[in-house]
Specification:
The chain has 383 residues and is an alpha/beta fold. Helix content is 40%, strand content 14%. The structure holds (3S,4R)-3-hydroxy-2-oxopiperidin-4-yl beta-D-xylopyranoside.
Amino acid sequence: MKINILICVSAVAISVTFISCSSSKKITASGTPTLKEAYKNDFLIGSALNSQQIEEKDSSAARLVPEQFSAATPENIMKAEIIHPQWANYNFDLADKMIAYGKKHNILINGHTLIWHSQLPAYARNIKDVDSFKTFFNNHITTIASRYNGKIYSWDVVNEALNEDGTMRKSIFLDKLGDDFVTEAFRLAQKAAPDTKLYYNDYNIEQPKKRAGAITLIKKIQAAGVRIDGVGIQGHWHLNKIPLKEIEESIQEFSALGIKVMFTELDIEVLKRDFQGADVSQRVASNPELNPYVNGLPDSVQQQLANDYESLFKLFLKYKDKVTRVTFWGVADGNSWLNGWPVRGRTNYPLLFDRQYKPKPAYYKVIGLKTNSGSGESAKKPF
Ligand code: XIL
């Protein structure tokens, strides 16, 4: 009799826990916190989303994203060639769906990106006279930023304006508008989107020379009395070569400017390539030697990836008062742009979820930093 009552009481307890967990969708049935839950007092955890995912046509992502992530960035659909395909024609369809997706799932949306030299529509690339280019620049920023003011959390206002040595990158923006185009972009965005956070975003800006260039750029914006709220370090890094020292110095130096720091496009490349960074125009010819893990990732590499992610998140946690968001560039390995860049057709493994959307050892290490054990090993399976 006593035993019966006990079983009954615990069964009720279990079912109550399960109901409360499944209704909040923050903690899985096993009791293991998800990424966004584990880090909820530290920083937002985001993912880039492709259009299939924004439209909830990818059923695995439709389940996983709201459970794991508190922030999202559209991987492509807010870039100029898609959202502003012709001079007088905007295509807001997918961007509106992204905003609705965020609202529905309580996910903060970072707009990516207003001003970038890449993925520009042909008409914009071919504008010859300065006045027409200025009109395009003003209309583009004002129309898009004002439409989403109060609906979108933040914007990458300018993306990748710098060279590796810290000088300004040669682009149509620099060519037509001069050095001040970055400050002008922020000025226009501030006017059109007073309720939205405004960021500068770039890759390799943790590296000393490029970092110095970014600091100069940010100080220039501030000196003009224009608002900039944060800086995004993209974070396209390589296995066993995470520049932890440079990242730490960057967090300190950028935050000393009075702005927040984000890691906005995090992935760790496990395949070979002979250059660093994420210049999308750099391409390398396919070659089977550059694609060694078609049938799976060796355990040693999997472990190294997990260790690299653990070291990174330890550092992010050390600066959780300065770091406001960590966003992965893709949900699961099968979606990663690194399967197609800089070498086409590779099988890459840069993220926390595998091709079946199952958490990898790296996921457990990242979660493990926030669970009582302090190590990923004992974190239970989340599904
Ligand atoms: C990439 C996307 O992931 C690809 O799908 C697209 O073909 C090219 O752009 N830096 C950025 C991102 O700021 O917008 C880029 O995204 C990756 C590098």
